[in-house]
Inverse folding.
C-alpha cells in the first residue's frame, strides 16, 4: 500500500517528462544569472532542482531567497533526464513551499576534524558520505538475514544482561540487576550453543559490549554481532560456511549499492575478489612465519613488501608537497580571481590532510616491521601483524588452529596436538584485519571444566552451559561477525565510528 501522495527522488526515473512533488531538505544552494540551483535530499537520494527566477514568478523567488542550508521544503516541478547531474535527473521547479527555515548549519562544506563531526553526529548523518555508509549498513544487515534464512537458520536472541563472561574478564561492563551484579553481554555465543542444541542451526543478531579503554580505529564499546551456531559442524564446515556467507553478503551489496559505493569512491577490486576468489586458509604456524618474513607468499616477502610501500609513500609525499608549493605560488602571484584562490586554498587543505595520513603510515610501518620481525610463536596477532599478513593477499584470509593460550576457554582443543585449539579468524584485506572470530566448540565435559578452572572463571555461572555437554553433547561450531567491522571494510572507511549510527566508545556517550 502506498501511503505518500508525493514522490521520492529515488523514483524520478519513472517520472521523466512529468510533474512530481518532492519533500526534503536543502543540501546545497547556489545561484547564477537568474537561476538558483538547489540540491535537494529527501532520504531516498539527492537531486538538483532548478528555479528559473524569470519563469517561476515572484512568490517562488521570494521563498527561494529565504532558504538556508538544511531548511526543509516541498516543491513541484517537471523531471528531465540529465546524465551530468547527480543521480541522473533534474527537476525544473514550478512551485515551492518552505516548511521550516534552518538556523546557520554547523557542518559547512569545509573539512572538519573527526571530533567535531562525532560531536554533531545527529546532524552529520545527513551528509552524503554518511548517508551512503548507512545505506550500505542497512543492505549488509538485510543480506545477512536473507543468507541465513535461505539456508534454514533460525534467528533467535541471546539476553543482554548476563551472569557470565565469554570473551575474557577484562572487558566486562558491570551493571546492577535488581541488586545483583550482572554484565552486559560480550557475545551471545553461549546462549547460541544452547539454541543450536534445540534448533540445529541458529544465529543471534544483537548488540554486544566490550569495556575496552582504548580509542582505536576499529574498536567500539557497543557493537553489533552476528553469531551463527551449528550442531554437528566441525572447523572445516565452519570455514566453508563463513566463506560462502561472506561471499554472498559482499555480492548482494555490490549488486544493490552501486550508487552508494560510487559516492564512497570505493575501489571494488578487493570486494570483487572476495566474491570470486577462494579465501586462502593459513595455519597459525605459517601465519607466524609469513609475518616474521621467513616464508614468502607467491614469491612475495612481507617485510620486503612493506619496505617497498614505505619507499612509495615517500615518493607520493614529495609529489604532494611539490603540488602545495605550486598552488601557493599561484595564489601569491596576484593573477587569480577570488573564486580561484578559494579553490586552491581548499585543495591545499585536502592535500595537507593526505600528507598527514601518509605521515601516520610512515611513522607506523617501520614500527610494525620491527615488531613483526620479533613476533613470537604463541602470541595473538595485533592489528599491525594482521596488516602485514593480509598485505600479501588480495582477498580475505582465514587463519586457523591457534595456540590455546590466546583463545577463549570454549574452543575445542586439537586432538592431534593439544597446544592448539580449533579456532579461526577471518582477516579482511586492505589493512582492515579481523572481521570474524569463530571456532569448533569443546564438546568434552571434563576438558571444558578444566579450561574454565584454568581461566579462573567462577564455575557456578557456567553450570547451565555445562549441561549442554551432559545432555547429548555433539560436535558443534560457530562464529561471530562484527557488523561494524564488515561495514567498515565494504565501505572502505578509515574509522569504525562512521560504521554505526551513534557510536559508543571510550569517552563518548553523546549524542
Ligand atoms: O573474536 P570475538 O571476540 O569472538 C567472539 O565474541 C565469539 N564469541 C564469536 C563466536 O564464535 N560466536 O568477536 C567476534 C567479532 C570480531 O571478529 C570482530 O569483528 C568483532 O566481533 N569485534 C568488535 N567489533 C567492534 N568493536 C570491538 N570492540 C570488537 N570486538 C570484537
Ligand atoms: Mg577475535
Amino acid at each position: 500500500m502506498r501511503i505518500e501522495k508525493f514522490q521520492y527522488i529515488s523514483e524520478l526515473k519513472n517520472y521523466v517528462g512529468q510533474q512530481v512533488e518532492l519533500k526534503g531538505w536543502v543540501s546545497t544552494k547556489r545561484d547564477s544569472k537568474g537561476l538558483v540551483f538547489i540540491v535537494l535530499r529527501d532520504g531516498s537520494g539527492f537531486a538538483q532542482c532548478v528555479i528559473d527566477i524569470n519563469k517561476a514568478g515572484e512568490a517562488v523567488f521570494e521563498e527561494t531567497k529565504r532558504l538556508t542550508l538544511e531548511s526543509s521544503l516541498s516543491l513541484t516541478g517537471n523531471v528531465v533526464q540529465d546524465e551530468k547531474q547527480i543521480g541522473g535527473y533534474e527537476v525544473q521547479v514550478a512551485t515551492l513551499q518552505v516548511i521550516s527555515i534552518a538556523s546557520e548549519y554547523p557542518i559547512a562544506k569545509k573539512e572538519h576534524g573527526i571530533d567535531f563531526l562525532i560531536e554533531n553526529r545527529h546532524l552529520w548523518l545527513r551528509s552524503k558520505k554518511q548517508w551512503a555508509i548507512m545505506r550500505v549498513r542497512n543492505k549488509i544487515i538485510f543480506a545477512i538475514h536473507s543468507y541465513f534464512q535461505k539456508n534454514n537458520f533460525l534467528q533467535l536472541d541471546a539476553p543482554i544482561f548476563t551472569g557470565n563472561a565469554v570473551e575474557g574478564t577484562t572487558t566486562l561492563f558491570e551493571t546492577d540487576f535488581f541488586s545483583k551484579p550482572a554484565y552486559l553481554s560480550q557475545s551471545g555465543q553461549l546462549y547460541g550453543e544452547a539454541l543450536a542444541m534445540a534448533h540445529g542451526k541458529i544465529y543471534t543478531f544483537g548488540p554486544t559490549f566490550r569495556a575496552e579503554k582504548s580509542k582505536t580505529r576499529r574498536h567500539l564499546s557497543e557493537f553489533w554481532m552476528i553469531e551463527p551456531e551449528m550442531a554437528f559442524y566441525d572447523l572445516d564446515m565452519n570455514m566453508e560456511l563463513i566463506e560462502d556467507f561472506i561471499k554472498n553478503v559482499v555480492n548482494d551489496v555490490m549488486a544493490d549499492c552501486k550508487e552508494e559505493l560510487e559516492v564512497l569512491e570505493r575501489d571494488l577490486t578487493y570486494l570483487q575478489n572476495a566474491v570470486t576468489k577462494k579465501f586462502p586458509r593459513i595455519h597459525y604456524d605459517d601465519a607466524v612465519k609469513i609475518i616474521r618474513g621467513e616464508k614468502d607468499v607467491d614469491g612475495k616477502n612481507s617485510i620486503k613488501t612493506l619496505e617497498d610501500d614505505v619507499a612509495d609513500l615517500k615518493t607520493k609525499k614529495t609529489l604532494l608537497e611539490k603540488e602545495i608549493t605550486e598552488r601557493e605560488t599561484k595564489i601569491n602571484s596576484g593573477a587569480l580571481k577570488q573564486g580561484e584562490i578559494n579553490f586552491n586554498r581548499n585543495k591545499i587543505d585536502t592535500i595537507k590532510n593526505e600528507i598527514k595520513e601518509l605521515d601516520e603510515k610512515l611513522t607506523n610501518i617501520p614500527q610494525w616491521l620491527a615488531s613483526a620481525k620479533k613476533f613470537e610463536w604463541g602470541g595473538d596477532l595485533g592489528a599491525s601483524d594482521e596488516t602485514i599478513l593480509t598485505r600479501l593477499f588480495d582477498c580475505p584470509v582465514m587463519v586457523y588452529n591457534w595456540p590455546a593460550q590466546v583463545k577463549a576457554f570454549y574452543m575445542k582443543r586439537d586432538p592431534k596436538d593439544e597446544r592448539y585449539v580449533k579456532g579461526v579468524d577471518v582477516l579482511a584485506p586492505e589493512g582492515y584485519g579481523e572481521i570474524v572470530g569463530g571456532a569448533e566448540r569443546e564438546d568434552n565435559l571434563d576438558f571444558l571444566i578444566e579450561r574454565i578452572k584454568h581461566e579462573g572463571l567462577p564455575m557456578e555461572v557456567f553450570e547451565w552451559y555445562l549441561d549442554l555437554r551432559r545432555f547429548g553433547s555433539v560436535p558443534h561450531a560457530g562464529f561471530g561477525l562484527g557488523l561494524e567491522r564488515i561495514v567498515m571494510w565494504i565501505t572502505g572507511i578509515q574509522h569504525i565510528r562512521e560504521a554505526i549510527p551513534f557510536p559508543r566508545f571510550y569517552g563518548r556517550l553523546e549524542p
Summary: The pocket of magnesium ion (ligand 2) is lined by residues 425, 434, 437 (CB under 6 Å).
